[in-house]
Amino acid sequence: MSSPLQSLAVSAPAKINLLLRVIGKRPDGFHELETVFQEIDLADCLTLTEQPEKIELTCDSGPLPTDNRNLAIRAALALQQITGTRKGCSIDLRKRIPLSAGLGGGSSDAAAVLLGLNRLWNLNLKPMALLKVASELGSDVPFFLHGGTAYATGRGEQLRRLTATPPYFGVLIYPNLAISTKEVFAAGKFSLTNSENYFTFKFVSSSMKNPAQWTDRFGNDLERVVFERYPQLQELIVELRRAGAFYAHMSGSGSSVFGLFDSELAACSAKICFDPYDRWVFRPVYRQHRSLS
Ligand code: C5P
User: Fold this and answer.
1) Domains and CATH numbers, the chain
2) Ligand 1 contact via 182 beta carbon (within 6 Å)
3) Is the dihedral of CA 193, 195, 197, 202 positive or negative?
């Protein structure tokens, strides 16, 4: 018999939104979206260690709260609540994904805690049960249970797997700005949902196979709102295109922006042009299936 797990290291990857469309405002105050999430190889790292009852978090990033405002703590508390377990855990979070950057870092940490504690605490929760907790924690959390490339609608929680796009190399820039998703949606003053606004899965799925079409077809509807306040982000995107990116946009509600390149050499050369900013060369992560147990 194998000995029970007492400590577990889990990775929590970032995402970019290859496209993001706001279909309209919903009666519940959220916005109906059509988006493509892409997991990338920039990740936080969490170590979960079992302990009796208490949930605690330590983190190497100063500004991040370590109490139950933190989604990782909320994820662990939610699992305790729905299963009634008396097990607790300490979470050590090594933060690599910038905060409030449109990269889903907090949501990914929460999903990693759900997946990790399901194993560490031997909860045996089924994928559907994890999905329900995830969507209550936040709109982006369900995506991180699966990762890879996904088409999402609803608040972002209704997911369909997309086949992998052709490979590319990305440059991600964090302009040292924290942007609140809530404020961006509120400032957008979007009209009510009109279901005729969807591109549809079929259209997106076929366009994904041909990156040369992305610039003409896709974009990010939240850029209009964010660029009005922070025109420097639009300038960064222009610079990324000038540096050779075949596609460049803001991720999510910002503040990070990304440019996509055909080769690693082109991405590495472009990265040099953005010297004063935090920046990374990244690759998309493709998955057939990420185990939910
Ligand atoms: O779901 P999450 O907590 O990540 O969303 C943060 C905020 O962003 C929400 O409180 C809401 O104001 C806004 N939001 C939205 N429509 C979405 C997702 C987020 O209006 N689909």
Assistant:
1) 7-161 (3.30.230.10), 169-282 (3.30.70.890)
2) yes
3) positive
Tell me what pLDDT residue 288 has: 78
Q: Known catalytic residue: 15?
A: yes
How confident is the model over 65-94, as pLDDT tens digits?
999 999 999 999 999 999 999 999 999 999
Max Cα-Cα span within the chain:
61
| Residue 88 backbone dihedrals phi, psi, to 5 degrees | -125, -175
Q: Is 81 helix (H, G, I), strand (E, B) or coil?
A: helix
Instruction: Using DSSP bridges, classify how beta strands 87-94 and 55-59 pair: parallel, antiparallel or unpaired.
Output: parallel
Is ligand 1 within 6 A of the CB of residue 20? no
**Sequence-ordered strand ranges (E) for the chain:** 7-25, 31-52, 55-59, 87-94, 149-153, 158-161, 169-174, 247-250, 257-261, 278-282
95 close to 61: Cβ distance less than 8 angstroms: yes
